[in-house]
Structures are given as C-alpha cells and as structure tokens.
Amino acid sequence: MTRKKTICRLGAPLLALVLALSCLAGCGAKKQREDIVILYTNDVHCAVDADIGYAGLAAYRDWVKEKTPYVALVDCGDALQGDAIGTVSQGEYLVDIMNQVGYDFAVLGNHEFDYGMEQLSTLLEKAEAQYLGCNIRYTGEGNSAVSALKPYEIVSYGGTDVAFVGVSTPESIIKSTPAYFMDESGRFVYDFYGGSGDTLYAQVQETVDQCREAGADYVVVLAHLGDDEGSAPFRSTDLIAGTNGIDAVLDGHSHSVLPCDVVENKDGDKVLLSSTGTGLVNIGQLVITADGNLTAGLIGDFPDRDAETDSFVKGIQRQYEAELEQVVTHTGVSLTTVSESGIRLIRNRETNLGDFCADAYRTIAGADIAFVNGGGIRADMAAGDVTYGDIIAVHPYGNTLCVAEATGQEILDALEMASRSTMAETDDGDDAVGENGGFLQVSGLKYTIDTSIPSTVEVDEVGMFLSCGENRRVKDVQVLQQDGGYAPIDPAKTYTLASHNYLIKQGGDGLNMFMDNTLTMNEGMLDYQVLITYVTDHLGGTVGSDYAQPQGRITVS
Q1: N or C: which terminus of the chain carries fewer CB neighbours within 10 A?
Q2: pLDDT higher for 105 or 176?
Q3: What is 5-319's CATH number, 1.20.1050.90, 3.60.21.10, 3.40.30.10, 2.40.160.40?
Q4: The whole model's pTM is what?
Q5: Which letter, b or e, does each residue of 348-369 get, where b requires 16 or more Cβ atoms within 10 Å of its Cβ?
Q6: Is 189 strand, coil or helix?
Q7: What's the per-residue H, E or C state across 368-417?
C-alpha cells in the first residue's frame, strides 16, 4: 500500500461524518473497499450512564456498522474506577458492562491498578476485551498478575492489517499504589520502562517495528499517557516525537479533549493524536478510509440508546443502589473541593472538605497529625442528607486507616514533597495551576508555603522522594497541642501520624518516607467509614458551621 495521507478533522459535525462514512467507502483502495472505523473511549471513570453513556456508545457502534463492517471499539484506560459502582464491585461491574458493550481492546490506566494486583488479574481474566501493554514488565518470582496482557495485536480488515499497540503510563507506580508493584520485601517487581523517556520510547519502538515486520499496514497506539506538562517525558507527544512508524495515538490519562492534533515524529512524519476527555462526554472516531486517508474527530452526542445495553446497565445499578441511597449522616454546610468559581483547589490549597477529611482521620485514630492526599478526595458533599454513595464518592478507593510513628523531620519532608508544585496563584482564569495529587490536606498542623522559593525536592526514576535541599518552601510548621495552642515542630521528636494505607504503607504520590515506620494501627477502618464515624460519633450526626470555610491551616505566600 502506498504511504497514507493524513487528514485531521476537528470535531466534524455528525452529518459530515455520516457523509464521510457513506461516500468514502470503496474509493479506489487497493485492499479494503470500505472504511475502517476505530471508536475509542478513555477515562470513563465509571460514568456508565452519563452524557452519551455506554448505551449510547453501543447504539453508535451499531449505527457505524451499518456503514462499514470494519469497526473496532477500544478503551484507553481508567474505565474501572472512579465512582461507587467501581468501589462496591472492585471493578467487576464495569468489566461486565464493557463486555456487554463489546469492546475489542483496552489498555490499563493507572487507576486500573487501584484494586490491587490479585483483583487486577481477576478483572483481566473476566474481560472479553484483549488488554494490551507493550511496556509493562514483571521481574518477580512466581506468576505475574498481568500475564494476560499482549504487547500488540494485528487485525485484518478486508486485507488491510491494523496493529493495535498498548502503552500504559510509567506514572502508574506513584499515581496508583506503589506497594502494589512491589514484592513482600519491598522491591519493585513491576515496571513500565519508565527509567527515562528514551527507555520508554525504545520499548515502544521495538514493538512498533515488530508490528511492521509482521505486515501491519497501519499502527495505532492505544495510550494512557496524557499531555500534562508534569507528565513529561512520558506524554503522548513525547512518545510520538521519540519514535517512528506510528500512524495514530489514541490517548487518555490527562482528561484532555483533543479532537485531532497533528504531531511530528522523530522523522518529521505526521501522526494523529486524539483524546475524548472523560466520562463518555465524547466518543472518539478514527477512520482509515478506503483510499488510504486517516481522519479523526469526536462525537459529542448521539440520540439513540441501545435497549439491551441500557437494560443491562440498569440491572447492575439496581444491584447496589438501595445500599447507596441509605442516608448515613447530615451536613449543615457544603463541603467542597473547588473555589466559588468552580476551579479545583483540593490539589493546591486547603479546602473545608480537606479539613473535614483530615480531622476525621486524626480524631478517629487519636493521632497527633493527619494527612489526606488531595488526589484521594474525589467529590463534594452538598449541604443536606448525605448517603452512603455520597461518602464513597468522596473516598472511592477503599483505602484503610493506618497510624504510623513518624519523626518531625519525616513530617517536614512529606510537606515539602507535597508542596513542590504549589504556585502563588490557584488558577489561570479557567483551570487550576500548580496541582499535585499528593498535595496534603492536614489536621493537627499549620504552616506556610513560600512559593518564591523554588522546590529543591529530588525524586528517583519512578517519582519517589529522595531528598530536598536546605532552603525549603514549607516554613513555620507548628503542631497542635492538647490545650488548643500550637508549638513549633521538633524534627527529632516522634509523632503519631494518621492517614491511609495508600500513603503510609504504600508510598502513594511518591511519599515514601513512612513506608518502613512502626505502625500503631495497621489497616483498620475503611476510608469512607472513617468519615461516617467521625460525623456520627464525634460531631453529633451533623457537620456544623465550624467547617463552613477552610480553617487557615495552610498559608500560601
């Protein structure tokens, strides 16, 4: 086949896509005589019936099949976690739904690992879609939890061979649960070829070359990499620039809405890059036309719903909705992760919901200090009755309460690590800036972050904390005393620190300074039960006006 032309359609209207599918089919192709259509989703995060929903996706897929027999449906990661339906079933309800819809291929996002390796193995076995991952390596003894993965698969559509290659972000280690990637001795036995960008690019290049040698006419990478600056050098754009032989990258991870970007590879050839956003707000569509062109765009709405899929989803929802709708507590104020203008703050500033969660951990555990990572607080709680489902939405990961003995110096290092991205401004007018999922919401502490001081934090090749310099951004750290006053933290003193297993035992968000510490509580109450118990047993059943505003624990200058 002659070299493909590359055409990028930016969010083409539905009618134009209909005409493209109807008119381009069979236009002089040497092999297939009809279009090949690859439909893609990413970062659905359990939004099974939101926006287009899985029933709309199934209906759209069937409609496209009326135009061409060559249709594939793929997912680019983070489908199985993010809401109560995932938490309650440890991802299994989502796999059931994806099986019903009829996915062909999928890749592992960082949050597919959140239920642990044993459960991930169960989910991969249950999935009818073939999960792909060319850059996930197991170096331990015994069986690998990801043995079901294939690096790539080639599908023939009317004589045209399309290779699908899976790539998962090396950030999975710190953006899921680091301990899941370790053996019992604490040694990492899973990795993502993430020692450097070049290491990742070389591994993907080797796989792409294998696909070409096997006769692939087109290579489509299903990636969970994203385009956030903080993810460099592991962004999808970095991967494209560091490789050749890829025709298109369908991406996830950063929740970016990219109808179709054109990025040059290392040889100067053009590669299509597209991502749908999150939550099935869009369906992505890559078309390899019968005359060798590539087009990409997003479908933002589709009026039909597949009745069988809709019924299946509703049946699953009924299995757990009664429990989720039980009222477990009440709040007299709105507890939030965002500013009044809707800008997300939980990952760069103190919020009243962050104060509430951290206080719950410290109070229930009877600890001196509590940390809750901002990335682990996932939803607001509106004033009024609060249901079981509302609480799970705040803490959807099912982490467990832990208490460790920690020195003041370890506390200081953790605060410095967590504050390394914080900026003087919270937003650029539209989006939050200086975000870090490991930004700590705290209880039992108050301190200042001086953003005029550049961060001196050093991390290793997988993002775990190594050290920081003498000139620190976090200043005037004080610890709450029993009499209600505050005293300066003592670096040599041992304090009790409450958090969850993700942070204390597993080094979540690269905060690995507590992983070897003595535990005085080892995986007790579930995270959302901590919140429920705090309100019912310590606040008299209602969150009161004390939490109407952030309480001034973190000052940013």
Answers
A1: C
A2: 105
A3: 3.60.21.10
A4: 0.74
A5: bbbbbbbbbbbbbbbbbbebbb
A6: coil
A7: CEEEEEHHHCCCCECCEEEEHHHHHHHCCCCCEEEEEEEEHHHHHHHHHH
Residue type, 193: Y
User: pLDDT-derived band of residue 184, with 50, 70 and 90 as boundaries?
Assistant: confident
pLDDT tens-digit readout, 19-36? 333 333 333 334 667 999
Q: Is the pLDDT of residue 465 over 60?
A: yes
Pair 478, 488: CB distance under 8 Å: yes
CA 226, CA 223: separation in Å to the nearest integer? 8
Q: In whole angstroms, give the CA distance from residue 317 to residue 311.
A: 10
Cα-only R_g, the chain: 24
Whose tokens are 């100067």? That residue is 268
Where are the strands (E) in 45-94, listed by range?
70-75
* Contact present, 447 and 555 (Cβ < 8 Å): yes
Token pair of 186 as six digits: 């604490």
Percent of the chain residues topping a pLDDT of 90: 78
Give me the count of residues in the chain: 557
Q: Are 436 and 369 in contact, with CB atoms under 8 Å apart?
A: no
The domain locations on the chain are: 5-319, 325-556
Sheet holding 474-480, edge to edge: 486-488, 474-480, 445-449, 554-556
CA 476 to CA 497: how far, in whole Å? Answer: 19
Strand-pairing partners, residue 478, are 446, 488
Q: Token pair for residue 346?
A: 């939980």
User: Which CATH superfamily includes the segment(s) 325-556?
Assistant: 5'-Nucleotidase, C-terminal domain (3.90.780.10)
Q: Is the previous residue joined to 233 through a cis bond, with omega within 30 degrees of 0?
A: yes
Q: Which of 375, 378, 366 is nearest to 418 (CA)?
A: 375
195 vs 87: CA distance, rounded Å: 31
Instruction: Report percent pLDDT > 70 for the chain.
Output: 94
Q: Are 527 and 500 in contact (CB under 8 A)?
A: yes
